[in-house]
Write a structure and sequence with these properties.
It is built from eight helices and 20 strands. The protein has 375 residues and is α+β, with helices and mostly antiparallel strands.
Length: 375
């Protein structure tokens, strides 16, 4: 099938799946494909098939039938939706939005695997989007950090200047907003007490951690290919090459970020990156995200007696939280260094504290009983 770039613009929140699966397609949740073409199904085109790619019937489209935005289908339902449209059996709205097609790609596929230019949303495929500076740490997490005693180091400034990075309004107000709401309900209880994490929960945490890693890179070295962020927005999960681990963390400094570029052997230029490893903490949880730029195998890694637990790709159907040991601001450096390019011999001694398994969250105010403390 040919590849094309469409110029349609269509705003929606929920739609019936064109495959007739009975489940709504939700714009801010899950992975989906928009489908346009002729009402008869004689010519079809679909967006968001992959990073920088669509599918279409042979170009140019027919000039004897108008083109419409036909609807959307879950990614898993795409084949069935196309079959129903071809056969004229898909349930279409009586009034459809017209669409236009621009067959010029203008090098989109190439630029997807370069770092996004300054001021560009790291997740959005729309080259005309107007990003605004958004806080990297969401407001719910800022409140939790302030609750744990994080204060401005400037005695003349009451509020902390949290880091920001450009993100387009569409991404910020749709899938990223939904993701933050989901992760807030998962992550905050993990700061305080025991819980079990199923595969779906691990997947949401992994997507959030990957999103955070790309935002950290955007304000730092900015080497992650644009396609990595676009893949998160399209598939709503880390792509198949990404790896994400989770660990318990405890330190007076609840925020630690260690970003380590992985270089090709014998090359230290920006053209020689194999990937990026970002290790960061948020209050009492640490994440490690590996974003590879090339396909390859990962050597066996030190897991610190099971304290660094993989959550993407999913390995454990049920993960018991927290692990046996927890990292601090010193030992997390060893966690960050376990993925490296062998440019230097690393020998790091690590002391890990036992992570206490607390079954009750501390009260919002007042004293904390001994059985509830996580200190």
């Amino acid at each position: 099938m040919a590849t094309a770039w469409s110029s349609w613009s269509w705003d929606w929140r929920r739609l019936d799946c064109l495959a007739g699966c009975g489940e709504l397609v939700k714009r801010a949740r899950g992975s989906w494909v928009e489908i346009g073409g002729t009402r008869s199904g004689s010519w079809l085109i679909g967006t968001r098939v992959d990073v920088g790619r669509m599918f279409s019937d042979p170009l140019p489209p027919p000039n004897d039938e108008p083109l419409y935005m036909l609807g959307a289908a879950h990614r898993a339902c795409l084949g069935t939706a196309v079959q129903l449209l071809r056969a004229g059996r898909a349930q279409l709205a009586d009034i459809l939005t017209t669409m236009d097609i621009d067959t010029s790609l203008e090098g989109q596929a190439h630029t997807n695997w370069m770092a996004p230019p300054p001021g560009r949303c790291p997740f959005c495929q729309d080259p005309h989007a107007q990003p605004t500076d958004e806080d990297i740490y969401p407001k719910w997490l800022v409140r939790e950090m302030e609750r744990h005693g994080v204060r401005s180091s400037d005695p003349h400034r009451r509020r902390i200047n949290w880091p920001t990075t450009p993100v387009c309004q569409h991404c910020n107000n749709t899938w990223m907003s939904t993701l933050e709401n989901d992760v807030k309900d998962i992550l905050v209880p993990m700061f305080f007490h025991v819980r079990s994490l199923d595969e779906h929960t691990q997947g949401r945490l992994a997507l959030w951690a990957a999103k955070m890693a790309i935002l950290f890179d955007a304000i730092g070295s900015n080497i992650v290919p644009h396609g990595a962020g676009q893949g998160l927005e399209i598939f709503r999960q880390p792509h198949h090459g990404m790896r994400v681990w989770i660990a318990a963390y405890h330190d007076v400094n609840p925020l630690t970020v260690v970003s380590r570029p992985i270089y090709m052997p014998g090359n230290d230029s920006s053209d020689g990156f194999l990937g990026l490893c970002v290790t960061f903490s948020v209050v009492k949880v640490a994440f490690q995200v590996l974003i590879p730029f090339h396909e390859g195998d990962l050597a066996p890694l030190e897991d610190f007696h099971g304290s660094a637990v993989p959550i993407w790709p999913p390995v454990n159907p049920i993960l018991d939280w927290p692990p046996r040991y927890r990292f601090d601001a010193t030992s997390i450096q060893a966690l960050a260094a376990r993925i490296n390019d062998n440019r230097e011999n690393l020998t790091i001694e690590v002391d890990l504290d036992a992570a206490q398994r607390v079954r009750q969250a501390p009260p919002e105010s007042g004293s904390t009983s001994e059985s509830q403390r996580t200190e």
